[in-house]
Specification:
Elements: E1 3-6, E2 9-12, E3 38-51, E4 56-68
């Protein structure tokens, strides 16, 4: 899959879609320690495509959220 870095993001070109064709995109993130507990946005994804046959451009903005929680480690001893 061709991909190009743009600004602070990555542009991945999925290619053409045909009748009843399904494509999936899997995104993985390394989330570093977060200062506060609870729900936090770790990334923002923007998907843009052209809808046929009208050739209408569509855009979907989607926040990627993660829940942070305290880590408990066993006591030495």
């Amino acid at each position: 899959m061709p991909a190009t870095t743009i600004g602070d993001g990555l542009l991945a070109e999925l290619g053409n879609f045909y009748a009843d064709e399904t494509r999936k995109l899997l995104l993985t993130f390394d989330v570093l320690a977060i200062a506060t507990l609870g729900l936090a946005q770790v990334a923002a994804c923007q998907f843009t495509w052209v809808e046929l046959p009208a050739l209408a451009q569509q855009t979907l903005n989607m926040p990627c959220m993660s829940t942070s929680f305290p880590v408990t480690r066993p006591q030495a001893g």
